[in-house]
Amino acid sequence: MELLQLFVTASIPVLKVLLITALGSYLALDRVDILGEVTRKNLNTVVFYVFSPALVGSNLAKTITYQSMVKMWFMPVNILITFIIGSVLGWILIQLTRPPAHLRGLVLGCCAAGNLGNLLLIIVPAVCKEKGSPFGAPDVCHTYAMAYASLSMAIGAVYLWSYVYNIVRISSTRGTQDSNQSAERSPTSDQVSCTEPLLSSKEYVIVEENGDQYSLPYTAVPEEKPKVTTSGKLKQRIVMVFEKINLKTIFAPSTIGAIVGFAIGVIPQIRKLLIGDGAPLRVIQDTAYLLGDGAIPALTLIIGGNLLKGLRGSGIQKSLVVGIIVVRYVALPLIGILVIKGALKFGLVHSDPLYLFVLLLQFSLPPAMNIGTMTQLFGAGENECSVIMLWTYAFASLSLTFWSAAFMWIVTRL
């Protein structure tokens, strides 16, 4: 009966997400046209530059202190582990299914990067408010849930735009090069193939024998190659890496908001000015909270509108979609349980049930929606990405409910 109660508790937040997502899809229909493509793009811009940074910064500023940072140091490592394991499983999937070159980066990205911000911001605080929640007082749970989800969103954005962005970029570039090379190799009707040699065999022998008479004198000059030291090679490689990484995308507004939130929370002098009922500049923090409250419903509506593209379909292999679903909803959560149990055994994480629940949930999320933005940016696999997002988010309603209940049951017994 207790497990059934946990399952009901886990299903309520997912149902809320489904209802808002369905509303977003309805508003994006052509006959309704309230949340059309242009509107979604403009709303997404407002969320990206205003709502999300306010949400992340305000929640981190209120809950983050030096002591809590020491306790939460494992979260960036945990997210990195999800990216590494997801990439390995994605590489295995690519070897099994052999997708086109321009889709390989998309497959790797969908297997590696989960929706570490939006869904956690919706699901975890909503679980705290449910009657059967095992995480204590709803108000305290909600405050720390927002902090954990905001930190996850900020770290996930850095990994996403530094790792997945470059994978999709390289994959789309290689796919374009391969298509261009195949077009150059294929003969056209205007080309005439010459099978006759320009010189007969006898003429070729005469020219070859007398070739030295027509050659210019050549004096070999030894070239002195500059010696490159080990430190010089290392410096060149570091410069090449920084040239390829787009720092502007890494330091997204939500990341900047996280940095500001950390600074406010950790520095006592600034914290006293902004945080608390008696803070002289508390109006700034209240304004940030007010703006941040608009992020969650707006993001969920945008997700619903974007998923509508996947209904049109594309020529993507069914095995790819099934493989990504298996990686994200079966393999990764099972591996995540082993990782967190191992970290708890070796004392790498503290035994806070809510914190452990968030760490486990990071292994079971659907692919990050920003991957669709990357495919639009590079013009490779946009339709295929829409189909992947449609089916993975459709299965997420069942998967997240199941794994949320299972994780709540696990963390109460660790």
Automatic annotation (TrEMBL):
One of its GO terms (cellular component) is endoplasmic reticulum membrane. The keyword Membrane applies. Pfam families: Mem_trans (PF03547). It is found in: Endoplasmic reticulum membrane. One of its GO terms (biological process) is auxin-activated signaling pathway. Signal peptide: none annotated. It is a multi-pass membrane protein. Belongs to the auxin efflux carrier (TC 2.A.69.2) family. This is Uncharacterized protein. It comes from Malus baccata.
